[in-house]
Design goal:
Rossmann fold; alpha/beta; 10 strands; 36% helix; six-stranded mixed sheet; four-stranded antiparallel sheet; globular
């Protein structure tokens, strides 16, 4: 069995008319780990995530479970790598919660009974059973984020990629979402400014800035390096300071 879930080598990417956004990224993501991508605004975190299932294609090589992302393989790759966008409104386009979660399975040539079963089961797992007929436009941001996550998980991806999952959530909704992410098995990669969540969930992390990877290591190694973080406009997370007994 291949150990690496994702392998990226010498990845470069520029948006049209702009300077390079990714500048020779090389990174490996191990099967089953929860990996964090941190860095200031403009570091390239979101752009890197979008390459992992072929939504963007730069120069370089990306392999998912040992298979390169090519034009012929991209459909399979997108089944293996599910991306949850930062803004749930970019992911939710059907009127009701049920319709959004059912959309993916309904387009997999499954029969109606299987689509119904998968959707109802996922709503139950995500503690959204009573929301099936609710209109998405009437949901809170936290509820929308849970529905967005459900629309990806119902497709049973091998790798879950999340872009700023806790952004703009109140403390209660944030904690609920973090506990949901903790309970989800499999390989996860999280791009975020929420360093407390990273310390809470991630086994390893990469610090990015200006399209490059500045450092990789365990969450404790990177997040406890005050000089490194400050150099890249970040701060040691409060949860780590409390755990270590250090002063802010």
């Amino acid at each position: 069995m291949i150990k690496e879930a994702v392998t990226i080598k010498d990845l470069f990417y520029s948006y049209p008319g702009e300077d390079p956004c990714l500048r020779g990224i090389s990174l490996s993501l191990e099967r089953g780990e929860t990996f964090g991508l941190i860095g200031p605004n403009g570091a390239g975190k979101s752009t890197l995530l979008l390459h992992m299932n072929g939504l963007l294609k730069g120069e370089g090589r990306i392999e998912v479970f040992g298979k390169p992302i090519t034009k012929d393989a991209v459909r399979l790759i997108r089944k293996q790598v599910g991306i949850v966008f930062q803004d749930p409104n970019d992911q939710l386009f059907m009127p009701t919660v049920f319709d959004n979660v059912a959309f993916g399975p309904a387009n997999m040539d499954l029969d109606h009974a299987e689509v119904e079963f998968r959707t109802r089961r996922m709503l139950e797992v995500m503690e959204l059973s009573g929301y099936a007929d609710r209109l998405v436009d009437n949901l809170s941001l936290g509820e929308k984020k849970k529905v967005s996550l459900a629309t990806v998980l119902v497709m049973e991806p091998d790798i879950l990629a999340l872009d700023e999952p806790t952004a703009n959530l109140d403390p209660g909704a944030r904690r609920i979402l973090i506990e949901l992410l903790r309970s989800i098995p499999g390989t996860k990669i999280i791009a975020t400014h929420d360093l407390d969540m990273v310390f809470d969930l991630c086994t390893r992390i990469a610090l990015m800035n200006l399209g490059t990877i500045v450092a990789t290591g365990t969450a404790r190694e990177i997040l406890s390096d005050r000089d490194l973080l400050e150099k890249h406009s970040l701060e040691i997370p409060l949860s780590l300071l409390i755990a270590s007994g250090a002063q802010p």
